[in-house]
Amino acid sequence: MPTAIIPALLRPLCAGASRLEVEGATLGDVLRALDLRCPGLYDRVVENGHLRPELAVAIDGEAGSFPLHEPLSATSELTILPAISGGAPDATILTMASPVPRVEPLEPGDRMTRAEFHRRYLEHPEIRKAELIEGVVYLPSPVRIDQHGRPHGLMTRWLSVYCEAHPEVEFVPETTMELDNDNEPQPDIMVRYIEGGSSRQTAGGYVAGAPELVIEIAASSRAYDMHDKLRAYRRNGVQEYIVWQVLEERIVWFELRNGEYVPLAADASGVIHSRVLPDLRLALDSMLSGDIATVQAVQRS
What we know:
Number of helices: 8
Low-confidence stretches: 83-101
Largest sheet: 6 strands, mixed
Strand content: 25-35%
Number of strands: 20
Mean pLDDT: 86
Strand order of the largest sheet: 10-12-15-16-17-18
Structural class: alpha+beta
Helix content: 10-25%
Order of helices and strands: EEHHEEEEEHHEEHEEEEEEHEEEEEHH
Oligomer: single chain
């Protein structure tokens, strides 16, 4: 569906959101849909059935005073901005009754509450991934194919086989998880029951609560996935936690037992079985060697 980039002066109408996805086949449809999420926005940008002359809209990078019937595609991106010609814009059109909040930085190592973190994260659409772990902001480094991309892909190919056989379960990559006042991680993969599990989808489209299984791809046991993040998942009741320590060529599958994470042992054939998700099993050595065909065959067996 089309994506609307919300200018800073209009964000207070949208609960601070800097970008929103809404349904709509035309510019007018999208603006009316935005008004449902951001009450009052439509009247600030439309007058007598046309965009206000002081404003323009950029659609997929092309700016102009488009008619409201201008067609949009499902992948269109539009931005409301001052008109590029015709004089200075009337500031009263976008001015809020209350002071405009300053866009505050989001830097690694900053300490803040989850509510503050979430607000700042929404104000920085250029940041593709940020996490709050035990009250500390983390901005991951660029991702390497051998240390992260390839293992992540292998894990998703394994889980796709499981979810095909268990449609009541879904795996979702890199989705924001609202845990507690100090933690808002964005795990590499979470596996959860779509209905009736220990987590739920919020009205904002995030996951609240602890999913049944979380998977993280870490360079080594020194990564925060094995320390602060592990403690946050444990305290919030994530029942199982898998960490692939790539440089050490090791996968550890933890089970939450009596408030502590205990590593699950493989059976005699080298397969680890979930205690929470029925029939989920991992051929450990095959996964570590990249033999995804065997991993999938074991999962199907």
